[in-house]
Structures are given as structure tokens and as C-alpha cells.
Amino acid sequence: MSIDHWGTNPADVIESALAAIETSLHDLLAMDPTYWRTSQKKDFLAKVEKLQAQQAALTLRVLAASGDIAAETGDKDASAWMRAELLVDKGAARSQIKLANAVTKYELVAAGLAAGVVSEAKARVITKALDKVETDPVATPEDLVLAEKLLVEYATQFTAKELRVVGKRILLEVDPARFEAAEAKALLAEEERAQQKTALRVWDNHDGTIGFDGVLPVSIGMRFKRLVEAYAQPRKQQLVDKGAPLPPWERMMGQGFARLIETIDPNALPRHGGDATVVNVVISLEELRKELGTATLGYDETNGTTITAAEARKMACNATIIPWVLGGDSEVLDVGRGSRFFVPIQRKALRLQQKCCQAEGCDMPPEWCDAHREDVGASSRVAA
């Protein structure tokens, strides 16, 4: 048990303070917020937000002084002990310790945390921005001091996400004339890195869906997001107007993306593998005659996937396909032409003839609909 220079026992003070916190939390947890007044809920949330920042300030102070814990565990920092005793992932623990060490370098950030006006998330954003300023060959120590002052002030006005944007350009706030050229150079370098990071991965989930993920430069990514939202939003608004419950936004965005793909004009696409970018649909004569037949999307099942004949007919309305009909021994009985069932002039005619979707109970305008054939020999209809 350690004794400090003033003859008091710090352990007693710490234990007493922690016990008081535990008692207060226990009392609050015993209450039911359902019966709180609105003003009490707002006051609680505001004060807890401040208390969380102060708690983070204290935790980071302890972590910054946790070298003795690391020495005891034989690790380079206290993350091993946090993993073993507190069940905190080692990566998350080291991230906390890294932030703790960063905060010790910046007095205003530490003071903002202690005062409860800078949250832990904002402190992380600010210290990362300041570390970049510190390594900037053009910036001076005076620039670093002013940048810290500005960012701590902005922390009281912006969210952590907004503060991150400000932090990337903080030197322009410090001295626009001196750092404008450097900012332009940094943006150019960032755009070049974005081009190098651009990637797209596509895979078959073997459950009727295709999975994909990727990374795009921000300028292209924002355009992509807006395009998909443009196709997802009308369907959302239609549901709102009818009072129907909204599906998850992610599903609507996925459906919007699917519609975006369906509306691409094949004639505007580049040539792919020596042929125009088209889809081959292979179906046997036997399957063609079935009411519920199947077809292969692609030249064969090894390099393609199986779909229903109904889906193949739907694709024919909106994409360029080449139908292949095979006999019993896979001999080619018929090869269709690469064409769309509905050309632009037919769409215009349907638009004039049918003022809305022709599916039962649907009144979507034709601009949001696809052209389909109800069955062989039937007249065309516009349907969502």
C-alpha cells in the first residue's frame, strides 16, 4: 500500500470515489425512464454526455501512466493485461493506449476532455489531425498551437464526423495564403491514392444472389450513391403515400441499384471479349416447353448460373440477350438475335396508351415501370 508525500492514502480516496459512482449508477438503474418527464430525460442525456467525456479523460490519464502494468505483464503496453483481465480486444486496447499517449501531447485537448466539452471520439479526430500538422514540413510550432486551439473550439460546434472534415483542412484556417498550394497538392495526392485503392469484387453466393463490395474515389462514389438513390426514392415515396410500411433502406437501395443496371443501354457499352456486352441465355427445347422451365445464364452451367425461364423472359424486356435453344444432345436448334423485346418507340407508344402500371392494384407512373409481356401472344403492358 503506497503513501503519497502528503501522508494521505490515495487508495482510500479512489475507492471512496468509485464507490460513490457505483452507488449513483445503481440508484439510476433502479428507476424507469418511462415515467421521467421530458425535461428530465433531456437533462440526463446532456449531463451523461459530459460525464462520458470526463470519464474518458480519466481513463486515458490512467492508461497513459500504465507503464508499470506493462512491466508487470512483460508486454510493451497494458493491452495484454486488458485482453486477459478485462476481455478487451487487443487492437481496441492498443488504440485506447495510443489515444492516451496522444492526448498527453496536447494540453488543450486534455483540458477539453476533462471539462466534458470534447468527447473521446472528437479527441481522437483532433489528435490525428494535429499529428499530421506536426509532421507537415511547412507547418511551424506556432501553427500547431493555433490549430489545436481552433479544433478544440470547433469541437463545441461540430460532430466528430464534421470535425474530421475540418481537421483535414485546418492549416488553411491557420494561414490560407501560406497553405493553399500545399492543400491543393495534398488533395491531388489523395485523389491519386484513391485511384490506386479503387477496387470491385463480385462473387456468387450460390443462393440466387450475387455479392459484391468495393472502393471508389469519393467523386465517383458520391455520383454512384446519388444515382442509386434516384432509383430507390420513388418507390419509397409511393409506399409512404399509400401508408404501407417501409422496407429497410438497404433493401430499397439494393433494388434501386438493380433498376439502375436494368436501365443501362447496351448500345452505349464498350465491347467485351470481342462481342458487344450481351447476355447469353441457353435453354433446352424440353425446358422451353415446360410451364416452369429453367435456363442457363451464360454459355454453360460451369461458367454461368441457372435461372427460371420467367426470369429470362423478364431480362429480355430490359437487356440485350441472345437465346440459344438446344436439343437432347445439346445440338443447337435455334439461335436468336441480340435484341431487346421493347425498343424506345414501343416504350413511347405504351406510355401514351397506358397511363400507369398495369399490374393489379398498382398505380405507379410509367416512368418508374418496365415493359413486360404477360404471356406468349398477349399484348405488352407497362408494369412495375
Question: Mind explaining what this structure looks like?
Answer:
The protein contains 16 helices and 11 strands. The model is unreliable at 273-277, 337-341 and 373-384 (pLDDT under 50). The chain starts with 9 loop residues before the first helix and ends with a strand. Helices cover 56% and strands 12% of the residues. It has a 5-stranded mixed sheet with strand order 7-6-5-8-9. It folds into 2 domains: 10-195, no CATH class; 267-383, no CATH class. The chain is elongated. With 384 residues, the chain is of the alpha+beta class. This is DUF222 domain-containing protein. It comes from Nocardioides panzhihuensis.
Largest sheet: 5 strands, mixed
- List the uncertain runs: 273-277, 337-341, 373-384
Tally of structural domains: 2
Strand order of the largest sheet: 7-6-5-8-9
How many separate helices? 16
Head-to-tail CA distance between termini: 76 Å
Spatial shape: elongated
Oligomeric state of shown chains: single chain
User: Got a strand count?
Assistant: 11
Tell me the Rg in angstroms: 32 Å
- Beta-strand percentage? 5-15%
Average pLDDT, rounded to a whole number, is 78
Element order: H for helix, E for strand: HHHHHHHHHHHEEHHEEEHEEHEEHEE
**Estimated helix fraction:** 55-70%
Secondary-structure class: alpha+beta
Organism: Nocardioides panzhihuensis
Protein name: DUF222 domain-containing protein
Output the keywords.
DUF222 domain-containing protein, alpha+beta, 56% helix, five-stranded mixed beta sheet, two-stranded antiparallel ribbon, 16 helices
